[in-house]
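hiii so um. not sure if this is the right channel but i have a protein structure encoded as tokens and i wanna go backwards to a sequence. like what aa goes where. can anyone help
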């Protein structure tokens, strides 16, 4: 018999013996637990508790545009002061003769921390000077300037209704300071709008006139109230 045949037979014998041994081990392993039976099996699911807390809303970017609902951030206001009437004949008499008291009331709303709208009603009587033969708001005796030019005093009652955009310049350029923040306590604002004027005339004896009015105002506000967006 050749050597190669001997090797082949030996390899075949080893393979058969290995398979038989493996099967025996498997059966032996199963036989080891043949007398055991399952009595109880339990599975438990553990649910981690939910963490509850209050998270304060903060604005990371102070220049981000933040709007609010329709019912929030309305405001009402009232003003009082003096104004001077300037016209062609304003220099005829003393400056004090052109000063008149006025007052106003209004309502407005902030849509963002930097932009709002307002509606305002103003009531006043304007005083000044007018030509002797011109201007139906003139009254009183004829007065004369140093050079002999005649003029008269002028007075007209009027009211104005206007709508204006309100721009909070401090917030537009420096950003919103945040809810209840001590920053930007002094804020600068600009109002730009248009309205209509109704002239009553002096003592209502000379009819009335209507005309458009333009509004450009500047103001400074010391913030005392809380405004949340």
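sure thing!! here u go:
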């Amino acid at each position: 018999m050749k050597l190669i045949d001997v090797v082949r037979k030996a390899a075949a014998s080893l393979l058969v013996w290995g398979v038989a041994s493996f099967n025996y081990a498997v059966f032996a392993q199963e036989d080891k637990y043949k007398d055991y039976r399952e009595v109880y099996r339990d599975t438990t699911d553990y649910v981690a508790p939910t963490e509850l807390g209050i998270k304060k809303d903060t604005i990371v970017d102070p220049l981000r545009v933040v709007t609010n609902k329709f019912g929030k951030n309305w405001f009402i206001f009232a003003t009082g002061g003096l104004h001077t009437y300037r016209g062609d004949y304003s220099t005829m008499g003393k400056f004090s003769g052109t000063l008149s008291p006025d007052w106003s009331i209004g309502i407005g709303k902030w849509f963002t921390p930097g932009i709002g709208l307002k509606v305002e009603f103003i009531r006043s009587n304007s005083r000044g000077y007018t030509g002797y033969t011109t201007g139906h708001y003139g009254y009183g005796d004829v007065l004369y300037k140093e050079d002999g030019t005649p003029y008269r005093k002028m007075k007209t009652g009027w009211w104005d209704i206007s709508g204006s955009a309100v721009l909070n310049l401090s917030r537009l350029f420096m950003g919103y300071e945040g809810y209840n923040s001590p920053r930007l306590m002094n804020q600068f604002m600009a109002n730009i709008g248009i309205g209509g004027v109704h002239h009553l005339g002096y003592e209502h004896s000379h009819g009335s006139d209507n005309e458009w009015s333009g509004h450009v105002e500047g103001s400074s506000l010391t913030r005392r109230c809380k405004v949340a967006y």
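oh and The two ends are 101 Å apart (CA to CA).
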